[in-house]
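Here is the promised in-class demo. Please do not try to memorize the tokens; focus on the logic of going from shape to residues.
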């Protein structure tokens, strides 16, 4: 470096052109080559060079010609110091190594000594090692046996925890949820031991295990039963939700039918006491939902008994749900087999207090309608409860007995009420309408029958009850009507009064079911009284017109007697005189009507009597006309009208119901077996008919319409009444399109 410094100073600037030298000289001169290499190298980028410069820089103060020499000495001195330090440290390491080597040599001597001793001992204990090896093999064999025994015991024995669970609580004898896995485990062990005995034949361990598990199971079931017995004593619906273990207990007890039966009996005993207490509380303190004691309604028997029956029914529903909750984990067949019997036993606790209160309430009740409603109430709840508690249960029998008691009191009271009303029945008034006593009886009957219609359940013996009610009410009523009618002097008045009473009875009875036979009886009585009126009125008309003499002689005439005109009183002059009088009747038929006919209260019956009277008169007239038209009778110059000609005037007097010719069935009237309701209009305008609950057949066709024909007197609509349902409360309504002539004309079912 010093040379480089000196060289740099000595090199003149003008020597630069002389720098180039030929290549051969530069290659052969190593110094030159090194200098060129040095010049060409970029030392400022060399990390190693920079480290060296950084290390040397602190050692150089001022740069002069002696710097290199001083630096060299400093470096040599530094190197010497480092070598001394290394030597000192190496001496320490060497001391440790020598110490370790000495210890290794010592250990080697000790190990050699131990090896020699062990070898000596091994030679001395060779027999002991053989015995040890044999013991080790025996230990392995015993361990294998131990494992097999442990596995066997683990499979065929209960753990201590399971045994404690099966024993139950030492305090109160109850069980926990751990009981049931332990019980299932004991049953599995019993089954496995039985299978082991079956597969291996004589197996003493299997026999012992079976006996032990059998005893364990018996004790466990006894513990289970005692636990159920205790829980049932404090049983309530809310408690069951918290004690789910009770449901599991019944499911586990299915294996022992006898114990299950005893457990169910315990439920019945507990629930009987509970439901009886709740019933007494509801009667005296009130229920949670209502808050008022049921006894407060004791003055109203219907409300009182209805509330008691409703509470009992609701309580039984709660008991049924409780039983289903308790037995929900059991086989469904267990619930089906025991539900009805259990509810029957539980409900038996309510029979005596319920019966006692009902009998006390019935003792002071005299209203027949209320009594019949109570009977309907008993029937309704009996039908509702019987499927739940069984028809032979004590509660079902109690309700049935109370129902029969109520019916007996009802019939007795009904007879008394009817007799009391009939005892005040007076003689008929001049208008021949039913006296007030008749209406009172019918109102009573209507109230009773409407009670049946409004009942929530259908009675199986309804028809029998209806007939008995009718016998209690209608039979004495009709007898009293007959007795009251004896105060009248005219047979016609008797017939009209009786007919009015029967019409009122018929109008009420027809509204209810199971009345066919009674309606037939009433209808027969009505027709009998109608016959009296029809016969009397027809006879009066025929007598007043003189037609009766002609009719009798014409009906009795035989061709062997010769021409009818030759018989005295049947000559043409006499016949003409009668026909003149008959024309007067046709012109003013109302003058020939009996006064009693207008007093008939039923328009239908009144028109029926008039129609039948016309039938009889026309029939008699037809007999006479047929004789007049017969040439054999030699009638000449006799002025008479044909039957068709007299129909107009006769029917004109009947604006609503009259006589007309049915195009298919011939003459029809309201008194015949299959009548045709004939409606007349004064003008042939089109009509519209509507029929409720009836299928109407057209006369002479099958398209389902009514036939309509036009006569000189107006339009006629035929509706066969035989197509209407028998004794139904249907109505056939006819609306005419011309409201100016008729307005909303409604006809109730007229005949059966």
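The designed amino acids, position by position:
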């Amino acid at each position: 470096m010093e040379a480089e410094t000196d060289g740099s100073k000595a090199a003149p600037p003008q020597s630069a052109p002389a720098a180039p030298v030929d290549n051969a000289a530069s290659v052969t001169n190593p110094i030159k080559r090194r200098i060129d290499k040095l010049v060409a190298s970029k030392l400022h980028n060399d990390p190693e060079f920079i480290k060296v410069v950084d290390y040397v820089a602190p050692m150089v103060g001022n740069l002069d010609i002696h710097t290199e020499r001083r630096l060299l000495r400093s470096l040599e001195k530094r190197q010497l110091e480092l070598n001394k330090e290394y030597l000192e440290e190496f001496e320490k390491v060497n001391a440790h190594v020598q110490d370790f080597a000495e210890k290794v040599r010592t250990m080697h001597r000790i190990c050699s000594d131990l090896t020699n001793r062990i070898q000596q001992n091994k030679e001395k204990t060779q027999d002991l090692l053989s015995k040890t090896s044999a013991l080790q093999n025996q230990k392995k064999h015993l361990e294998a046996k131990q494992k097999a025994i442990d596995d066997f015991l683990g499979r065929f024995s209960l753990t201590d925890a399971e045994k404690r669970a099966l024993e139950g609580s030492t305090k109160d004898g109850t069980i926990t949820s751990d009981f049931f896995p332990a019980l299932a485990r004991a049953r599995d062990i019993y089954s496995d031991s039985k299978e082991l005995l079956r597969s291996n034949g004589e197996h003493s361990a299997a026999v012992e295990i079976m006996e032990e598990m059998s005893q364990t199971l018996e004790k466990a079931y006894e513990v289970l039963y005692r636990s159920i017995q205790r829980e049932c004593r404090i049983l309530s619906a809310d408690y069951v939700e918290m004690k789910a273990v009770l449901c599991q207990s019944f499911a586990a007890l299915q294996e022992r039918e006898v114990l299950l039966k005893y457990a169910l009996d315990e439920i019945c005993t507990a629930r009987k006491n509970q439901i009886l207490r709740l019933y007494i509380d509801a009667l005296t303190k009130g229920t949670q939902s209502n808050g008022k004691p049921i006894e407060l309604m004791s003055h109203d028997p219907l409300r009182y008994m209805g509330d008691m029956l409703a509470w009992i029914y609701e309580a039984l529903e709660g008991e049924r749900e409780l039983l289903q909750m308790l037995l929900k984990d059991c086989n469904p067949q267990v619930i089906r087999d025991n539900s009805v019997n259990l509810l029957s036993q539980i409900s038996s606790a309510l029979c005596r207090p319920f019966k006692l209160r009902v009998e006390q309430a019935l003792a002071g009740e005299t209203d027949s309608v209320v009594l019949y409603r109570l009977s309907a109430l008993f029937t309704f709840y009996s039908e509702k409860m019987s499927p739940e508690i069984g028809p032979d249960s004590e509660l079902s029998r109690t309700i049935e007995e109370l129902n029969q008691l109520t019916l007996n009191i009802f019939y007795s009271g009904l007879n008394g009420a009817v007799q009391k009303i009939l005892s005040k029945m007076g003689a008929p008034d001049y208008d021949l309408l039913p006296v007030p006593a008749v209406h009172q009886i019918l109102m009573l009957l209507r109230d009773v029958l409407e009670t049946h219609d409004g009942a929530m359940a259908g009675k199986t013996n309804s028809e029998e009850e209806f007939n008995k009610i009718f016998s209690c009410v209608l039979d004495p009523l009709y007898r009293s009507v007959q007795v009251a009618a004896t105060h009248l002097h005219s047979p016609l008045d008797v017939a009209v009064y009786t007919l009015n009473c029967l019409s009122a009875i018929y109008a009420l009875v027809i509204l209810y079911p199971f009345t066919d036979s009674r309606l037939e009886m009433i209808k027969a009585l009505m027709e009998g009284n109608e016959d009296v009126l029809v016969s009397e009125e027809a006879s009066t008309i025929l007598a007043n017109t003189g037609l009766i003499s002609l009719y009798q002689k014409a009906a009795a005439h035989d061709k062997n007697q010769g021409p009818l005109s030759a018989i005295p009183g049947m000559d043409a002059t006499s016949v003409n005189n009668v026909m003149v009088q008959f024309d007067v009747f046709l012109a003013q038929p109302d003058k020939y009507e009996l006064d009693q006919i207008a007093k008939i209260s039923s328009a239908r019956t009144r028109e029926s009597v008039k129609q039948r009277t016309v039938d009889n008169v026309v029939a008699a007239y037809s007999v006479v006309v047929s004789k007049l038209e017969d040439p054999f009778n030699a009638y000449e110059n006799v002025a008479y009208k044909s039957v068709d000609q007299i129909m107009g005037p006769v029917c004109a007097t009947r604006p609503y119901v009259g006589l007309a010719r049915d195009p298919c069935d011939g003459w029809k009237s309201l008194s015949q077996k299959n009548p045709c309701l004939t409606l007349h209009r004064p003008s042939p305008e089109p009509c519209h008919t509507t029929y409720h609950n009836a299928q109407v057949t057209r006369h002479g066709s099958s398209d389902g319409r009514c036939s309509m024909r036009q006569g000189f007197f107006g339009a006629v609509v035929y509706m066969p009444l035989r197509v209407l349902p028998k004794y139904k409360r249907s109505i056939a309504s006819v609306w005419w399109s011309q409201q100016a002539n008729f307005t909303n004309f409604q006809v109730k079912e007229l005949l059966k």
